[in-house]
Amino acid sequence: MTDLEQQVFTQVRAIIANEEQVIGRRGILIPLKKAIIADGDIRNVIDIVATDPALAAHLLWRSNNALSPSVQPNRSLKDALVRLGQVNIYRYAFSFYLKERLDELPQPYRKLVQGYWRLTESVAIESVDSLHQMQGVQIDADEVQTLALFSVFGQIIALTAFAYLNAEAEQCFPLCIIKTLIDTQQQTLTVEAFESLGLDDELQNEFMVAHNLRQTRDPHSPGLVLRRVLSQRGLLLNPL
């Protein structure tokens, strides 16, 4: 690593460690997280989500996207949230507000992260479809879908942090530096992003399984479903 790359790497990691700088004070994400941690009462969670109509509509859409074609769709926010459970609710809410934040980035970073985001959406669709075709497994489709939405999380967060770094710098660093860091330090940046941004341990664990960085004997692991899709697309951090 060159001195300049080390400098950028250190500064990008410092930005990633600041949750508010990365995702901002987005809507009801903070009170939602506090409600889940405090008592886990789903009624309180429903009340908080309902205060943001855009998020509520998004969660209803996401929950129905993950359903098997043979299952009746959720018709109310309450039904959707009760079925999702608090962990999936927070994961979906986080991804929703993260996407809002990404859409505010200046060019060329917005175009680059939107490309990554389209990739995650495509991976999520393929992963859920793959799950529905499997027989004899007991895997929550929403866990597969939420996990897939974080499949290139490190790249997205690293590029976002680099955009903020350049926005504050007197002289912009060339884009090729963050590309090199993403190529060579992706695992480190991803793990630090998961830890700094307060996402649940199970999500990080299944992400490691999905990318073949950790093994599991659980045949009902969402990470194993995602691993097959990532392998076929050549996206594994640790190729098979």
Automatic annotation (TrEMBL):
<feature type="domain" description="HDOD">
    <location>
        <begin position="22"/>
        <end position="213"/>
    </location>
</feature>
<protein>
    <submittedName>
        <fullName>HDOD domain-containing protein</fullName>
    </submittedName>
</protein>
<dbReference type="InterPro" id="IPR052340">
    <property type="entry name" value="RNase_Y/CdgJ"/>
</dbReference>
<dbReference type="Pfam" id="PF08668">
    <property type="entry name" value="HDOD"/>
</dbReference>
<dbReference type="InterPro" id="IPR013976">
    <property type="entry name" value="HDOD"/>
</dbReference>
